[in-house]
């Protein structure tokens, strides 16, 4: 393609953008501004999804000032087009820059009159596509569909509540195992799809970089660029590397470098996400460099998500400092914050009473005492607490976790002091320890005794996992797979998939410590800890691969240990001191910090005071657990999850992503466009590129094909399969490509219909609403695509209620192309007249829809503005910016609704025989 600044191009991947203008070229990239939606997109020049707009003589031309003119001639000057047009009997020149930003090309009318027809199945595909897009727009579930996540009520509630806000600024503080990363991903996914956010930076501890990278890609189809020192050094001189990518992920430690800090601050971001934020050290006298950098970033980035499982573990004042990052205006006075928190118990007690049906005592004056208890509770949650900026779900309140059953397996000592160590396999020849270490022989026997049960085996190091897996496969005849950091992401996927396969898959998956992070293996019940990690949080991560919501059965934790070794010492400290094998503990870091020195001493050589350490640890743990339980902010937990709303969201998502409906559409899409589609099992199939594709709807399908599923349940079991939900980028691109193309716009056929005389004509027309407006306004829910089918006879009467599209589609037959041309020539005037009639009919309907949409949109935003304004008087957590943004959004939305236009999507002429 040849590009020049000022040329007009269409995005065939997203037709709603309207007509774009090339505004910048740098050789490798082309930037296009789309005035209709006030968005700018940058594409690689080699594969930009763009189509050059070139009108021809005789075409209709629409100008920005609303005139419709006929093109008489086309001239080109310095790679820009100049159109010679007729206007009021005079000739004038119109530059392509002056074309209407909402231009429609290759209309169904033009294609039908030119006898450029498609198959009836293509016409039906266009009809189905419009219907599905309309249903998705109306659902209000934008961003929550198609993600590879279980439909857990607490996650759905948080994602929906936070994701719909403009530039959300919240602290996600769910306890371990409840899925903060998933919540953050769902919020981000919704923000990106709605258009509220475009450029995102994620900062995580260095050890979690790849976990986040994989989670964002696998669960949310978000391709983040991983940045480190080398990536920053590769940037072109004078350019900011952070500006070259839309989605950036990096370690928090990267910003210890002043240059990295300067570059990040100089870039323009819409959202910043920070995981394990409590690790960024803070104190009133000496906050760390990382925290100070975050403070500066937080002040200039509109959206901010902070994640931590331990919001107050390092002190209430540090917790307040993190909240002040979210809203400095709200959290500016620590003593006032402490006083405010002291009142939470009062409101929590009142809510508990209302929940039990007891009379309300001490209800605030601004809450209607005659309202229902449900309304009163909702008002209290809105007005008080930190629920607007802090979300914390607790395992105790969420529930649904399996019971843990711990099985210690003492093994005889070995006459070699190296086996007294925690990890003897790291200090001895591999072949030697495989023969000598009693844990190896025990593992073989245990796996054989558990057949055919699936077993997850976790050890500290990749070298250990490699050796064990090879031993099991080659010497013990046990089907197994290895999973460790030395494998590529694809190889890890294959290993996990082999383990997940029920019939011919691996019985055991041998993992290094990386297996304790990020992946879920809820289909297994048995966990073997070949060794133990030195930090209780890592042990919790290991157990959490099985101990998660969705695990239906009791989980069995097997711990083999050599008697008298450091392994036994650590096992007993975890078991008898913290009781960590039986129950989750969110205070592991705190407990380890208190007893670390004494524990390390006992690990080197267990002494007579070990029992005293166990007793002290157990006492401290029990007290800490009690304090955490009693200190739970039940008001916060209530505002963090409305289980009823969460369940309703889950049901709505399940209804709209029905795998039967999704599968049927996918099959039709492939059949019409030429993609090879082979059934692979229930709700799954294999896709391959076709030799003669009519339309490139799935350009990402690899040469050797891929397996896809339209079932969420299957997608959660088979992470190596592609979950082709409605919001998967492939599916979204396919649907917009269909509507942005001419495929199925015009069709001609014949049918025999009882009672209808031969030679009669029927005109089936499909109209939709065209609305070019920024996605962030959320207008599509109020004025969606709204497909409208008309079936007119030769006299213009609408017969759509008498003959459905499905019935007509079953009966209509193809006509020879030569016959079609003759028919169209003979009926040209009638065709034009019927299309004109239909356009007038739908235009009048559209006016009524626009008025109704404007009324609903204005009312909805007026109510929310009034609610937040009232709440702000009693709850400073309501930011003024949110209210101002709603006012601006209301004005912009009402203006945009007035620009909606009727669009003819397709027309089919059917003759009766």
From TrEMBL:
<dbReference type="Pfam" id="PF12137">
    <property type="entry name" value="RapA_C"/>
</dbReference>
<dbReference type="Pfam" id="PF18339">
    <property type="entry name" value="Tudor_1_RapA"/>
</dbReference>
<keyword id="KW-0804">Transcription</keyword>
<keyword id="KW-0175">Coiled coil</keyword>
<keyword id="KW-0547">Nucleotide-binding</keyword>
<comment type="function">
    <text>Transcription regulator that activates transcription by stimulating RNA polymerase (RNAP) recycling in case of stress conditions such as supercoiled DNA or high salt concentrations. Probably acts by releasing the RNAP, when it is trapped or immobilized on tightly supercoiled DNA. Does not activate transcription on linear DNA. Probably not involved in DNA repair.</text>
</comment>
<dbReference type="InterPro" id="IPR022737">
    <property type="entry name" value="RapA_C"/>
</dbReference>
<feature type="domain" description="Helicase C-terminal">
    <location>
        <begin position="439"/>
        <end position="621"/>
    </location>
</feature>
<dbReference type="Pfam" id="PF00176">
    <property type="entry name" value="SNF2-rel_dom"/>
</dbReference>
<dbReference type="InterPro" id="IPR038718">
    <property type="entry name" value="SNF2-like_sf"/>
</dbReference>
<dbReference type="InterPro" id="IPR023949">
    <property type="entry name" value="Helicase_RapA"/>
</dbReference>
<keyword id="KW-0067">ATP-binding</keyword>
<dbReference type="InterPro" id="IPR040765">
    <property type="entry name" value="Tudor_1_RapA"/>
</dbReference>
<feature type="binding site">
    <location>
        <begin position="174"/>
        <end position="181"/>
    </location>
    <ligand>
        <name>ATP</name>
    </ligand>
</feature>
<dbReference type="Pfam" id="PF18337">
    <property type="entry name" value="Tudor_RapA"/>
</dbReference>
<dbReference type="InterPro" id="IPR040766">
    <property type="entry name" value="Tudor_2_RapA"/>
</dbReference>
<keyword id="KW-0238">DNA-binding</keyword>
<feature type="short sequence motif" description="DEAH box">
    <location>
        <begin position="275"/>
        <end position="278"/>
    </location>
</feature>
<feature type="coiled-coil region">
    <location>
        <begin position="821"/>
        <end position="848"/>
    </location>
</feature>
<protein>
    <recommendedName>
        <fullName>RNA polymerase-associated protein RapA</fullName>
        <ecNumber>3.6.4.-</ecNumber>
    </recommendedName>
</protein>
<dbReference type="InterPro" id="IPR049730">
    <property type="entry name" value="SNF2/RAD54-like_C"/>
</dbReference>
<dbReference type="InterPro" id="IPR000330">
    <property type="entry name" value="SNF2_N"/>
</dbReference>
<comment type="subunit">
    <text>Interacts with the RNAP. Has a higher affinity for the core RNAP than for the holoenzyme. Its ATPase activity is stimulated by binding to RNAP.</text>
</comment>
<dbReference type="InterPro" id="IPR027417">
    <property type="entry name" value="P-loop_NTPase"/>
</dbReference>
<keyword id="KW-0010">Activator</keyword>
<dbReference type="InterPro" id="IPR001650">
    <property type="entry name" value="Helicase_C-like"/>
</dbReference>
<comment type="similarity">
    <text>Belongs to the SNF2/RAD54 helicase family. RapA subfamily.</text>
</comment>
<keyword id="KW-0378">Hydrolase</keyword>
<keyword id="KW-0805">Transcription regulation</keyword>
<dbReference type="InterPro" id="IPR057342">
    <property type="entry name" value="DEXDc_RapA"/>
</dbReference>
<feature type="domain" description="Helicase ATP-binding">
    <location>
        <begin position="161"/>
        <end position="329"/>
    </location>
</feature>
<keyword id="KW-0347">Helicase</keyword>
<dbReference type="Pfam" id="PF00271">
    <property type="entry name" value="Helicase_C"/>
</dbReference>
<dbReference type="InterPro" id="IPR014001">
    <property type="entry name" value="Helicase_ATP-bd"/>
</dbReference>
